[in-house]
Amino acid sequence: MTAPGSAAIWTMPDFDEHERVEVIHDRASGLTAIVALHSTHRGPGAGGTRFWHYPQPLAAVRDALRLSRGMSYKNALAGLPLGGGKAVVLLDEQRTKTPEMLAAFGDAVEALGGAYVTAEDVGASVADMEAIHQRTEHVCGLPAQPGQAGGDPGPYTAQGIFLGIKAAVQYRLGGKDMDGVHVAVQGCGSVGSGVARLLAGEGARVTLADIDHARAEVLAAQLGGSCVSTGEIMEVGCDVFSPNALGAILDDATIPQLDCTIVAGGANNQLARAEHGEMLRERGILYAPDYVINAGGIINVGLEYLARRAGETCSSATVMERIGGIARTLTTIWEESERSGTGAHEVADRMAREAIGRGE
Ligand code: NAD
User: Is ligand 1 within 6 A of the CB of residue 242?
Assistant: First the structure.
């Protein structure tokens, strides 16, 4: 496949021996989508579908390449028998998403014969997954019965991050409980609000920021925390900075401003570039690699899918038990990082590549 108006996709910097990159165009519904399968070494390539408006179509290809590799790493270090894949659906400026497009996308996923399993991502809801499920079995994040795996991944993602933060506090600060630990939370959406609630529930002090300032204020009032502006949150003097909004927030400009000992949050792709992981290490800041700490959601929907395929069900108790493994994986990464003198992000990448059969 050749990228529109440029060189072949396999010459793009984000291409990493992806097994397949499919472009789907359905004239009748107006669907244009890209499905990237990075690795199916461990099982079907699982990862959500992003519905987004891309002013430059090439940015959609880049996103699919980058995000599908991230899913290979995430699923591998979560110990799931799943590979890495991701889809992007290119929406118009009005972000029009029609039932016909969802049906055509479901048909496209079905045509891949189970090599790709889709789920929610930015711009997609549980209802969208139900619509896609009308056309294919290879979808997860479907509505869940109480006590069963599945449904909105957000609360499970938050639970994994909460456990990861506790593990980091224990590892770096030596404390077992969260009483009085100060956490600055960037983003109070599905994940950030869940993390803040869990932390406050165990006595942590939370400082919150969101571009929707009213949202942060309401949550702070409920949790007895405080609020700062989005421009200030990364400079708050605290124990833990927890990014739960955007990616690429850790860069040359922001890392020197951090006044914390731990960075641990759910936002995807937090490091602007790989060397920013090393910059954190040099500053003595313990970093929880994003795709390790934010795997709770895929653990939930991945186990939902695997159980359904086996004609079984998976309980949320089993999901919670598996999410508990995130803290152990992070601790292994930090120990190895310290032992080898390399950044936690590098150690995690190395472990992930080994787990997908692409070690050195
Ligand atoms: P969400 O849309 O529910 O919440 C994001 C929040 O961030 C919103 O409240 C938004 O107003 C706020 N925000 C946006 N820009 C901001 C800024 N500059 N400063 C402060 N706040 C800002 O999204 P979510 O599901 O909570 O996901 C948050 C992050 O976690 C994303 O990076 C997402 O990719 C990642 N993630 C989510 C899941 C999941 O299960 N939902 C899983 C893995 C990773």
Answer: no
